[in-house]
Amino acid sequence: MPIPPAVAKFADLHPKPAHVRFQYGTAGFRTVASVLDSVLFRVGVLAALRSKKLDGKTIGVMVTASHNPEQDNGVKLVDPRGEMLDTSWEGHATVLSNAQTTDDFINELDKFVQAAKIDLSKPARVVYGRDTRPSGASLVAALEDGFKALGAEARDAGVTTTPILHYLVRAINTKGTKDSYGDDSEEGYFLKLSAAYKKLVATRQTPSPLIIDCANGVGAPIAARLVEHLGDSMPLILENTSITTPGALNNACGADYVKTSQKLPPSLDGRLQPGQRGCSLDGDADRLMYFYLDERSQFHMLDGDKIAALVAAFVVELVKTAGLQSQVKVGVVQTAYANGASTKYLSERLPVRCVPTGVKHLHHAAEHYNIGVYFEANGHGTVLFSPATQETLRDYQPSTPAQSTALEHLRSLNQLINQTVGDALSDMLLVEVVLAHKAYSGLEWDSLYVDLPNRLVKVVVADRNQFKTEDAERQLISPPGLQQKINELVRRYDGGRSFVRPSGTEDVVRVYAEASSRAQADELAFRVGGLVYDFCGGNPTTRPKEFI
Ligand code: NG1
Ligand code: ZN
């Protein structure tokens, strides 16, 4: 079947800007919003094709640039089980987005449809949402033209969070089956989360109020609805909720600000009281960072690694108490950015795997455990229950009241935790459940282990593609000889660790360093940064002055 003529007609309305090269990376397409119109249209077409290929299953499309500045935007596809787009299609997305003219695009499309054996007569179904960015509405209009071009049945989820969009995709595709994931509506999502949370804390004291920094993004209206559903069970105070103030999104607030600057967002100064718990969401509410001020008003950050440690230990304890330890193996997945102290703490308690950066790697590795806990240090993560484990939890006959209670808790956790993707609001409730059960304050949670001081540095190089890594990105194999020089440097630092990798989302190389003191971690990072810069023939006049 040839490509319907409507595709070319619509494609003419969304010309590709000259001299821009797009790439479907770890976070989908993401760049300055003003050049994205053609990409959105073409992603609309691609989503419809993906649905046709999968026999009319609903595909999700999320328009967001997460923690990036407000002028950026982006788009990513969600596969039928609510997971990231199959990697084999990422390359096709890149090729289609870069076809220069309408004719080139139709040609590429035709080749792709033939090669992938897509039956164009099949139905196509999509569900799409966007964050609060001002560029969102017009980009969604381009996306909708892509759906129309192939006659896809499209459902608009409106302004929503990335994890809710993933939830909806799974709920729609499992509706009426034995794997039903919940009602396929935002309301269904809130009911599922709030019911599970209330069960888990039913016998616990109401916690002290938690401040949520909503990053002036979509987390604000969504958290406000969660507040209504939680009622008195969880006092939440929403801050940074200005979703219509130009320039406010992710600006000096949000999870990425907290992680990279390791500071309290200035807007929370005087609001967060010593001892009180606070947390930050990012612009699409899939990342979460916790923090508190000690009695001297010193800021302490509780990042994704601390969340993994807290949650994994709790799950292991429940599994043991339920008498399920021989049937349900719990494991943790991290990336090389995980703080060395967290890896040590976790490895002493359960299996830990390190995988390359990018949620899809973590998610897939976590699926190999019965219960897989994965978190990136930046606060993106979740806990996956394998299908077999869900059956075990359903069928298991506990023999004591203690076993029965632990089993009920595990069942409720399975409901509370978003099984499709990292979800800041679901993760926040999960953290609150564990804190309530352990009667931990932020300080006690923080004391599980002491973070090694660390530093992340960006280096702008002529061509980041010459950087190739192995061993879950911990070793450089190209440029040749550079890793050896890094090793020589690292050896001179007490507790030193450093690695270099090309970013998948920005045109930079990232340098991570850790050492036993703050000064040493900084020095190591800047020395390695300098090494990378000089090795790659950087221009001496633009060499950052902090590089030693
Ligand atoms: P890159 O730019 O590849 O380092 C960043 C984050 C990832 C992940 C992606 C997707 C760091 C060091 N890197 O990737 O963890 O979240 O963005 O958003 O935080
Ligand atoms: Zn995000």
From TrEMBL:
GO terms for biological process: carbohydrate metabolic process; UDP-N-acetylglucosamine biosynthetic process. One of its GO terms (molecular function) is phosphoacetylglucosamine mutase activity. The keyword Metal-binding applies. It catalyses: N-acetyl-alpha-D-glucosamine 1-phosphate = N-acetyl-D-glucosamine 6-phosphate. Mg(2+) binds at S66, D282, D284, D286. Its EC number is 5.4.2.3. Residues 189-288, 303-440 form the Phosphoacetylglucosamine mutase AMG1 domain. Pathway: Nucleotide-sugar biosynthesis; UDP-N-acetyl-alpha-D-glucosamine biosynthesis; N-acetyl-alpha-D-glucosamine 1-phosphate from alpha-D-glucosamine 6-phosphate (route I): step 2/2. It is an enzyme of class 5 (isomerase). Substrate binds at E376, A377, N378, R501, P502, S503, G504, T505, R510. Pfam families: AMG1_II, AMG1_III, PGM_PMM_I, PGM_PMM_IV. The keyword Magnesium applies. Residues 457-525 form the Alpha-D-phosphohexomutase C-terminal domain. InterPro entries: A-D-PHexomutase_a/b/a-I (IPR005844), A-D-PHexomutase_a/b/a-I/II/III (IPR016055), A-D-PHexomutase_C (IPR005843), A-D-PHexomutase_C_sf (IPR036900), A-D-PHexomutase_CS (IPR016066), AMG1_II (IPR049023), AMG1_III (IPR049022), PAGM (IPR016657). Its cofactor is Mg(2+). PANTHER family: PHOSPHOACETYLGLUCOSAMINE MUTASE. This is Phosphoacetylglucosamine mutase. The lineage of its organism: Eukaryota, Fungi, Dikarya, Basidiomycota, Agaricomycotina.
